[in-house]
Amino acid sequence: MYKKLLEPVEVGTWRLRNRIVMAPMTRCFADDQTGTVGDDVVEYYRRRAADGIGLIITEGIIISQRGKGTFNLPGLYTEGQVKGWEKVTDAVHEEGGTIIAQLWHVGRLTHHQVTGGFPPQAPSPIRAKGKVHRFGEPFDIPEEMTVDDIKEVIRQYAKAARNAILAGFDGVEIHGAHGYLIDQFNSDVTNQRTDRYGGNQRQRLTFMKEVTQAVMQEAGGNRTVLRFSEIKDDLPDFRWDNPEETLKLYVEAFKETGVEMLHPSTNHFAGFISKDHKLHELVRKYWSGISIGVGDLNPNTANQAIENGIIDLAAFGRPLLANPDFVQRLITNAKLEIYDKTKHLSQLV
């Protein structure tokens, strides 16, 4: 019934059992003081691998203390954190799975009580509206990053990628979407710099390009995914002024870095990002590399999108929380349980 979705496929260096991807989902089950993951997280990912998920993308893993956006987030910048993730990757590989680490820095979307007393980092000192997730305090005014700060954060991304490979991950995903640090550099709303990291849209993509190149040097171009989006979590009404022209500039930047795999992120796969454009269809118009689809997909819409050549892989989030046996249910055509926030969000099963 879901022939294309369930067929094996080679992507980069990976031989995936199917085209199903576990989307990155923040879970907040790491030790808050150390940023290490425990046995419950090990079994959580093992279960998805045992189910037969083609590619697992982890929850966001922070690259530094200052990149932390709320409590209980895991990291990849200390030896202890690396050892914790080694247990996860070993478990996934024992079940025949493939897993990559999503590297994350939230930029201005945090508070000094979360980051260990440090002010948030951002391209410009513009405070975000809203409150810190699971904390309730308003976002702090961020500290504008100096060029030296920028270079240091790029090194932190590279170190996190190196640590990911040391921990046994099969690759990495760079979280450049949803209004976090990389996306803050990309947008004129949050980036009002006048140096080489600011200015027009092409110039504002400089930080994203340099992070991507640094990460690829550590993880490899054929083991690196770049996630980007038009939408921003802290700016619900934000939209690109000229979606097609903006996307063309993004794709030019992607090609300059040599990255081979993209994860265009949107809340609604079939929704329009403007009057005439759907994000994934627009991406396919200008991008011939690997593209991961996401955004309230169901098995039918995902299978059809793959058949139509719009996407190569299909990512699912909440359905995998509600159905740890998601793949097996598709194979047997069993009914899927509906996601229930009160039931599934707080459980690590």
From TrEMBL:
One of its GO terms (molecular function) is oxidoreductase activity. Residues 4-334 form the NADH:flavin oxidoreductase/NADH oxidase N-terminal domain. InterPro entries: Aldolase_TIM, OxRdtase_FMN_N, Oye-like. Gene3D superfamilies: Aldolase class I. It comes from the Bacteria. Pfam families: Oxidored_FMN. This is Alkene reductase. It comes from Fictibacillus arsenicus.
